[in-house]
Design brief:
291 residues, five-stranded antiparallel beta sheet, four-stranded antiparallel beta sheet
Length: 291
């Protein structure tokens, strides 16, 4: 990865010391209490810094065997994607240039946000700096290679970009929504990404960074602005009813609550969320639900 290679070339052989200092800094930044509502429990946290953190600063999804993550930093032209083991969160494969050249040249795409897994493929919400082209790019989950398949969802219903996508395999839809202050979820037919319908919501939602569908419920990561307390919300995709599932306080300072995925793991965790500290680290936090 470009910036890490440059830093290594400047600091080597002091790279190990530099890395240690970064890890220490991360510990100080992320040193506050981690709490959540009584109906949830933090099972574990997987912590990443520097180049690994940059591969997961936006989206996360899983097939139950692997986690898949995406990260974007437009300032250094990095849009990465990686595959990790479920048990130890060890890196399997990765790509620091996940957006293919032809998509960059045609649409100026420079950001992958929330991602979703279905049937051996990764669906990636991809946008450009001006929010002109809201794309779904599709990748092979085995190799993380771009399949050549993509869809432009337009701007009629997505005026401020495409922050995430969530596959609802049971009903044959892909869901997304505008990023900030919206009263609807958009449903697209999974087979060809043609627009199907709006799901009108029981209340307005804000700043949704990632989502995943499980058993007819869409779980959403709400990044509360200027707050150390973030919220996991749910939407019933049949009725549009919105509920706050649980609140969580992360480290006593404002992080970005990023992507979210949902899958019952052997350690008892069910909801898995990426928190970016806006500086050097990403923490993947795994929560169980009571009852």
């Amino acid at each position: 990865m470009f910036i890490v290679k440059i830093l290594k070339s400047i600091l080597y052989p002091g790279w190990a010391l530099f890395s240690a200092l970064i890890i220490l800094l991360s510990g100080l930044i992320n040193g506050g209490d981690i709490t959540c509502s009584p109906n949830a429990e933090l099972i574990r946290t997987d912590k990443f810094t520097l180049d690994e953190a940059l591969l997961m600063s936006q989206g996360i999804t899983t097939d139950g065997e692997y986690y898949y993550t995406a990260g974007s930093i437009a300032a250094i032209d990095l849009v990465g994607m990686a595959k990790w083991t479920v048990d130890e969160f060890d890196k399997v494969i990765y790509d620091h240039s996940a957006i293919p050249k032809e998509i960059k040249e045609k649409y100026n795409s420079d950001h992958i946000g929330g991602i979703s897994y279905y049937d051996g493929k990764i669906y990636a919400a991809t946008e450009d700096e001006t929010d002109t082209y809201n794309l779904i790019l599709i990748y092979d989950a085995e190799t993380l290679e771009y399949t050549g398949e993509y869809y432009d969802l337009g701007t009629e219903f997505l005026p401020d970009g495409i922050p995430y996508c969530a596959v609802d395999a049971d009903n044959g839809y892909l869901y997304t929504s505008p990023f900030d202050e919206t009263d609807y979820i958009l449903a697209y037919n999974l087979k060809d990404m043609s627009f199907s319908h709006k799901i009108m919501l029981s209340e307005t939602i804000y700043r949704i960074q990632g989502a995943e569908v499980y058993d007819g419920i869409m779980y959403m990561s709400y990044d509360v602005s200027d707050s150390a307390t973030e919220i996991v919300q749910t939407v019933d995709v049949k009725t549009g009813k919105v509920e706050n599932l649980f609140e969580r306080t992360v480290s006593g300072r404002d992080h970005e609550a990023e992507g979210l995925t949902v899958y019952p793991m052997e350690d008892g965790s069910f909801i898995h969320i990426a928190d970016y500290d806006k500086l050097v680290s990403v923490n993947i936090r795994h929560y169980s639900l009571e009852g």
